[in-house]
Write a structure and sequence with these properties.
heterodimer, A: alpha/beta, abc type-2 transporter like fold, 2 domains, four-stranded mixed β-sheet, 15 helices, B: alpha/beta, four-stranded antiparallel β-sheet, 14 strands, 33% helix, elongated
Chain lengths: 366, 302
């Protein structure tokens, strides 16, 4: 009997005008577009320059700022007030004010002050931007003053190596996390929506009056999406390899094993949501809420460790957090299964809890 | 043994009482009709008997199986056609039939003889998706799907609602054929004219059974003369008839008003001149036999 239920699901899936396209296009678009746009690298900061000095040295500094990929000289203002005005209208993010007698003060050895004002509406952009600028100023001052003053600062030499992501490529941070979202959507939420749709259309009424057992019905709903989900995940691996040249450092068996545990947990959550929803609309709204929490609190974009402590406690109850950790570990660091046992076990626990709750709250015969 | 036994079943949804202490039996091989307006509790009763929901109080059994403890046996043994079309609209006629056959561990071929008469009418549309069928065709397909496993009891929840008059007639002919094959049928309908087709009917109103009898028995129990009146201005006529002292009760009924009288010695002539004095023309008054609907209206106003 189960075979027929399964065949029916595949038939309906194939016949759906929207689902097969969604299942193929969603991961491809996610993998092709999101790694480029979901980035915390700060680039193209608009700079407004107020050059009161207007000498060879000051123009050299401006040229140096403009030559990096981080800054774009948007405006040369006459006065600081004018530059401030353009910042107010959002035309510039950063003001570099080079004072009068800048060159003269440097040549005479007095040293000069460059004033920087950053728009900190976006805190990250503001602080990163002023940080970059100060680095440029520092190297600029070394260039023009190769004399004794700089010798002291060589007392401590700092050298930094970026481990696991030598080129500091934010895409490599995002790709494994984006894959988790794809798996979450296809294996966790789509089958739940499918169950709710049977409720909404009323077909479940007919099925419930037959000898079909509830677990058979639900498993027949889940299995196709699990299979499709794993297939789609494999497409994601392929895209990340071909398009981004990014191959997992760890092994695939570990990857798929952890993924299965995650699918188990998220399907349970999906069924739980479907138990409490009478219509697709209700289910979608609840899932939307969960997606928001998952996206922003699971460490997808921002590290969980920099959240306030209470938020870290909430994050501890978010299954995608553990899966994203595991995915990044395997992909970027080549972590083996043994090191992922905590994540694996936690995901399994979530799975058991969600599925148990789903069974308890389910009333085939209310 | 009765095909269906219902003992003191009650069910409430929040503060609304859907079923209030209902009891009746459906005999084996009987075509039993549940007649009542929308919201009378018919669907709730069906859902309890098909083991989809639990009653708050009382017990019920189908084919001797208890609806609570032996629900699995019931599900194998009954056919249920919900009031709302509940087959898979994105699957074809044939696929739906094959699917429901396989769910019961059988095949279309094995039980084809039972549904042959109905199936031959929809077979030309085998490859059409069921959502694209007409209303009558959908009901025929749903009936086929409910019969595909040779159930001994058939539950039909308003099978002819939203179906054209010709298909309705055909549908009832099919039910008579099924009855001859020994299948017990419990059906519900809001149409009074269909009640006469059943072996026995029960009037249900606001979760209570008003009466249970054969259609003829119910008509006999009307127990008083009934008249039909019509004239040129039907709208004001209703008030005029009600104001006549000898008239007990008057209500609109199609193109006539039906009324009952306080005294069997009611004289038509006196009534005629009363209406004539009020300026009505083309007056016709006839004594008629009550229909099932008259009985329902009489009982439901008590």
């Amino acid at each position: 009997m189960f075979r027929y239920l399964l065949a029916k699901e595949f038939k309906q899936f194939k016949r759906n005008e929207f689902l097969p396209r969604l299942v193929v296009m969603f991961p491809i678009m996610t993998m092709l577009i999101m790694p480029w746009v979901a980035t915390l690298d700060i680039k193209n900061i608009n700079v407004s320059v107020v050059d009161e000095d207007n000498t060879v040295t000051s123009r050299r500094l401006i040229e140096k700022i403009g030559s990096t990929q981080y800054f774009e000289i948007k405006e040369r203002a006459i006065t600081y007030g004018e530059a401030l005005e353009s910042m107010r209208f959002g035309d510039s993010d950063l003001i570099v004010n080079i004072p009068y007698c800048f060159e003269k003060d440097i040549v005479t050895g007095q040293g000069s002050n460059v004033f920087i004002a950053a728009n900190a509406v976006n805190g990250t952009k503001g602080s990163m931007g002023s940080g970059y600028i100060s680095q440029i100023l520092e190297s600029f001052s070394r260039e023009i003053l190769p004399e004794p003053a700089s010798k002291n600062s060589d007392a401590v030499n700092i050298s930094v190596i970026s481990k696991y992501n030598p080129t500091l490529d934010y895409k490599k941070f995002m790709i494994p996390a984006l894959m988790s979202i794809v798996v979450l959507m296809i294996c966790g939420f789509l089958p739940a929506l499918n169950i709710v749709s049977e409720k909404e259309i009323g077909t479940i009424e007919q099925i419930n009056a037959t000898p079909v057992k509830k677990w058979q019905f639900i498993l027949a709903k889940l299995l196709p999406y699990w299979i499709i989900g794993l297939f789609v995940l494999s497409i994601c691996f392929l895209i990340s390899w071909i398009v981004y040249g990014f191959f997992p450092a760890g092994n695939f068996i570990t990857l798929y094993t952890v993924t299965l545990a995650f699918i188990f947990a998220m399907s349970g959550l999906g069924i739980l949501i479907s138990n409490f929803s009478q219509t697709m609309q209700q289910a979608m709204l609840v899932m939307f809420f969960f997606m928001l929490v998952f996206n922003l609190m699971s460490g997808l974009f921002t590290p969980v460790s920099s959240m306030p402590e209470w938020a870290q406690w909430i994050a501890a109850f978010i299954p995608p957090k553990y899966f994203i950790e595991a995915m990044r570990g395997i992909y970027q660091m080549g972590v083996g299964f043994r090191d992922l046992i905590p994540q694996f076990i936690i995901l399994l626990c979530f799975g058991f809890c969600f599925n148990l709750l789903a069974i308890v709250t389910y009333r085939k015969r209310s | 043994m009765s095909a269906i036994e219902i003992n003191n079943i009650s069910k409430t949804y929040g503060t609304t009482t859907a079923l209030d202490n209902i009891s009746f039996n459906v005999k084996e091989g009987e075509l039993f009709g549940l007649i009542g307006a929308d919201g009378a509790g018919k669907t709730t009763l069906f859902r309890i008997l098909t083991t989809l929901i639990l009653a708050d109080k009382g017990s019920a059994s189908v084919n001797g199986f208890d609806v609570i403890s032996q629900y699995k046996s019931i599900r194998n043994d009954v056919g249920y056609m919900p009031g709302r079309f509940s087959l898979y609209g994105d699957m074809t006629v044939k696929e739906n039939l094959d699917f429901f056959a396989s769910v019961f561990g059988t095949t279309l071929e094995q039980n084809r003889d039972l549904i042959e008469d109905i199936y031959c009418q929809i077979e030309p549309f085998n490859n059409r998706r069921s959502a694209k069928l007409s209303g009558g065709m959908k009901q025929k397909l749903a009936l086929c799907c409910a019969l595909i496993h040779k159930p001994s009891v058939l539950f039909l929840d308003e099978p002819t609602t939203g179906v054209d008059p010709v298909s309705r007639k055909e549908f009832w002919e099919m039910l008579h054929k099924l009855k001859k094959k020994g299948i017990s049928i419990l059906t519900s309908t809001p149409y009074m004219d269909e009640a006469g087709q059943c072996d026995r009917i029960a009037f249900i109103k606001q979760g209570k059974i008003l009466t249970i009898d054969t259609p003829a028995g119910i008509i006999d129990s009307f127990g008083e003369p009934l008249f039909a009146v019509s004239a040129n201005n039907m709208h004001t006529l209703l008030k005029a008839v009600r104001e006549y002292p000898e008239v007990k009760n008057c209500y609109t009924f199609g193109e006539y008003h039906h009324f009952t009288v306080r005294d069997v010695k009611f004289k038509k002539a006196g009534f005629l001149s009363y209406l004539g004095s009020l300026g009505y023309e083309n007056i016709s008054i006839n004594q008629i036999t009550a229909t099932v609907e008259d009985c329902y209206l009489k009982l439901s106003e008590l």
